[in-house]
Specification:
309 residues, TIM Barrel, alpha/beta, 3-keto-5-aminohexanoate cleavage activity, two-stranded antiparallel ribbon, 8-stranded parallel beta barrel, 38% helix
Length: 309
């Protein structure tokens, strides 16, 4: 896993809501500005969701994606990674709409069904900007994020095989690595696997460094040199675990989807500020940052000319 470090920036996501930060990108203009700024700061990949520009609620509408994808491409060479995880309560058909419309170089793909608990966040906010926010988060007490074997295979066939799109395989637990190994053994996915290990969300792996070590040991055993490792940590654990992982040879993901803060008690004013911080840390450790084209080579992507936007 030697070589340059790929920085991914997840600019808005579907977990945080407008009440939580005035800096969360919501409109197509804001998402475009956030993605381009992150790329200028050093992100080779920008991971993208869409939101209703009036309410900030996560949306699967491909028309919203098309209001920022071409503009980001015009202003940046960054790899655009479109979520197939979507948002809570979205059907798989809805979650795939943007990927079908855009035929991107890269899509995220969750490697298992799981509980993702966000309900505890509601205790921090006595008032909400929009009516949907509290109910959206509280619904995670009884909801489950569905990614069955059948659903995963459908995404691989409909998006990967159909368009030459490759995947950021999002692994929230050890079992997700074994599920990915199953699809590799069947020949449905091919190396190099881009494996995003995720820490610190309620319902998934914890944020202890030993959790990170365990995921890496398991991935090494299952995939050998057939994968590229990346680290995503939620909230205050973002910079710490990303730094540990990068020292161990991994790539990193930051952004306001994963954490709203730049440091303790200081909200991140932009996605670019988080990218600039992790880049500064890594360069101080004598690690080199991958450009978008270097990331394309490392992940064997089809190239920006082959997308549909």
């Amino acid at each position: 896993m030697s070589g340059k470090v790929i920085i991914t920036c997840a600019v808005t996501g579907s977990i945080h809501t407008p009440t939580m930060s005035p800096h969360l990108p919501v409109t197509p203009d804001e998402i475009t500005e956030a993605a381009v700024g992150a790329a200028e700061a050093g992100a080779a990949i920008v991971h993208l969701h869409a939101r209703d520009p009036e309410t900030g609620k996560p949306s699967p509408d491909p028309r919203l994606f098309m209001q920022f994808l071409p503009r980001i491409r015009q202003q940046s060479d960054a790899v655009m990674n479109i979520s197939t995880g979507g948002g809570l309560k979205m059907s798989l058909d809805e979650r795939l709409e943007a990927a079908h419309a855009a035929r991107p170089e890269l899509c995220s793909l969750n490697m298992g069904s799981m509980n993702i608990g966000l309900f505890h966040i509601t205790q921090k906010y006595p008032e909400w900007q929009h009516d949907w926010e509290k109910d959206y988060l509280e619904a995670t007490r009884a909801g489950i994020v569905s990614n069955t074997f059948e659903q995963i295979e459908r995404v691989i066939r409909e998006v990967g095989n159909a368009y030459g799109t490759r995947f950021e395989f999002e692994c929230y637990d050890i079992g997700h690595l074994y599920t990915l190994a199953h699809f590799l053994e069947r020949g449905l996915v091919k190396p190099p696997l881009f494996v995003q290990t995720i820490f610190g969300l309620l319902g998934g792996l914890g944020p202890d460094p030993e959790d990170l070590m365990h995921m890496k040991r398991t991935a090494d055993r299952l995939f050998g040199d057939a994968y590229r490792w990346s680290i995503l940590a939620a909230g205050r654990h973002q910079m710490n675990l990303c730094t540990i992982g990068a020292i161990m040879g991994g790539n990193v993901r930051v952004g306001l989807e994963d954490s709203l803060y730049l440091s303790k008690g200081e909200m991140a004013p932009t996605n670019a500020a988080q990218v600039a911080k992790i880049r500064r840390i890594l360069e101080e450790l004598s690690l080199e940052i991958a450009s978008p084209d270097e990331a394309r080579d490392m992940l064997d992507l089809k190239g920006g000319a082959e997308v549909a936007f």
